[in-house]
Design brief:
33% strand, 1 helix, mainly beta, single chain, 4-stranded mixed sheet, 72 residues
Length: 72
């Protein structure tokens, strides 16, 4: 019997965009925080996932929905 070890690749997406995984040392929340400097709307986003497809773990950044204005 042979045991093989597969490396899980992580994939991060937001609003149709794919982000490069900065490395396994970063948690999904830290990845979101890293990209929030370029995409400020990610500061309030939640991390959804992972969803596994083969050897790929997919995470989605989901922007928090909210109402604006005093009439909400």
């Amino acid at each position: 019997m042979t045991i093989s070890i597969a490396t899980i690749l992580r994939e991060f997406t937001y609003n149709g965009m794919r982000f490069v995984d900065p490395g396994p040392a970063f948690t999904p929340d830290q990845v979101r925080d890293l990209y929030s400097a370029q995409y400020p709307e990610l500061t309030t986003a939640t991390v959804d996932g992972p969803e596994f497809s083969g050897e790929v773990a997919s995470y989605k950044f989901v922007r928090a929905a909210g109402a604006k204005g005093s009439h909400a």
